[in-house]
Amino acid sequence: MNIAPGKNAVSNIPFDQARVDRLMEEAGIDVLLATSKHNTQYLLGGYKFIFFAAMDAIGHSRYLPVVVYEKGGPDHAAYIGNRMEGAEHQNNPFWTPTLHAACWGTLDAANLAVEHVRKIGKAGARIGIEPAFLPSDAYALIRKALPDAKLIDATDMLERMRAIKTEAELEKLRIASELITDSMLATIQWAREGTTKVEMIEQLRREETNRGAHFEYCLLTLGASHNRAASPQAWKKGEVLSIDSGGNYHGYIGDLCRMGILGEPDAELQDLLAEVETVQQTAFSKVKAGTIGGDMISHAEGVLKASKVAPYTDFFAHGMGLITHEAPFLMTNHPVTYEGTYAAKPLETNMVLSVETTMLHPARGFIKLEDTLAVTDAGYVMFGDRARGWNRGGAA
């Protein structure tokens, strides 16, 4: 399917065009070829093809969506997708003036992208690509077919594009966080003595799905163990439970951790969770537009260093949105391998942070809180801000 530009074809661009154009200019990019699911989703205003939502491989190749966007030229934009996506367009038309719903693999998608770049007169342009999300066969085809083009890594530019959330994105992140929190609480209350980790994880999956969230993972510990993988281990009286889950709502991530107890927490457990909470609150106190990101990190780390639980406790903060670790990147290789490129930059309004303090106590187990905050001019707004103490199991 090839839909040519027409009158008013680009009246509904779903992103801040001026901002994206500015970021492309700063990165030296004339034309974008976005090929990751998250960036194509962003540039298409939230659309993701359901058939390939949980997989990529098909036949001898894989699904490769492509959004072609020319700086300052939305009338030249195109979406290249799978053949079945023509039906999606019939129901909810894509904003791009050109649509090629014609592909079953990487090479036909890359060929159509090349044809479109030539058609708009940009065969020798500076073309932004996503190296980590562009298969080698598609890259080789583009490189050979456009010998005069300069292929530029657009990863940083695209990360900066997504760093500042719109109000609509913030609402999706809020809903995702609320749904995950509700689901974790329901699972803790449902679980009984003898309930296994495997059973709890499956129950959480049902709870999230029934609430309209898409379950992605659950990392769960019981008792003194620090092992968060699924297993037949069963919950016993007096044991702690940590439940850390990621799920999404319309593609936006909810990622939180809460604590449970089968029985009543003793004084030591109350004290240990209070230590974790102190570090969290210390970090929160520095979250505000204009604060240098690294200052928030160092403030929390300083308080943790002086704590009696410091030898077995870790603090971490990262950006999140369409994916679990995105801009702002505040810490280097801790624990995920990337550079903390935003540590020396000020936090900006509508950035979203995940803040987490994790204690691996040698006797009492895995004790953690993870929270989601949206940066505001005055400070922050927290999503899913409930149940941050000891939640009793077996209460349903």
From TrEMBL:
The keyword Protease applies. InterPro entries: Creatin/AminoP/Spt16_N, Creatinase/aminopeptidase-like, Creatinase_N, Pept_M24, Peptidase_M24B. Keywords: Aminopeptidase, Hydrolase, Protease. It comes from Mesorhizobium neociceri. GO terms for molecular function: aminopeptidase activity. The keyword rRNA processing does not apply. It holds the Pfam family Peptidase_M24. Residues 19-164 form the Creatinase N-terminal domain. Signal peptide: none annotated. Transmembrane segments: none annotated. This is Aminopeptidase P family protein. Residues 171-377 form the Peptidase M24 domain.
